[in-house]
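Interim report, section 4.2 (structural modelling).
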Amino acid sequence: MNNFLIHFHSGWRWVFLILLVIALLNNLIKWRQGATNTEADQKWNLYAMSAAHLQLIVGFILYFMSTKVQFSGESMADPILRFFTAEHILTMVVAVTLITIGYSRGKRGASDTARFRLAFWYYLGGLIFILAGIPWPWQEYSAGWF
Ligand code: HEM
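Predicted structure of the assembly:
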């Protein structure tokens, strides 16, 4: 079960990242074009936010199962334990919060342009935190590509 969840969590990052980049570009392009904000635009933002929420839920389940999460005095001195116990969860919760605010501001902005602009900036902030918080294979965390 643990192994399945780790692979799901690892692989889902790609689905999430692709949806996030699509929503981001959609907001940017339509903001610059001065386009009308339609239901289809809201849907791209919704897909990206839903993918983020699913990743967050699986992350929280893993948090209570993973051997890389340990609450002991020494875990903060170990870079891998510290990363998964504190840094990964913190950056990802900030990222998903930004995306969730972005979705809501993107729905309720004062004008079509404001909706695209707000969703774009919040989603961009989320993307930056996500990219910074992912344990990439070239880092010391022994994480995979999928
Ligand atoms: C929402 C964006 C998130 C992304 C994109 C993400 C991505 C990843 C990736 C790529 C790994 C490495 C998997 C591997 O070993 O190949 C990982 C591991 C892990 N993530 Fe996340 N994560 C996210 C959120 C979270 C959150 C919010 C939590 C905790 C509440 C969390 C908890 C964990 C844990 C505990 C592991 C280590 C699992 C293990 O190897 O035992 N993740 N995450």
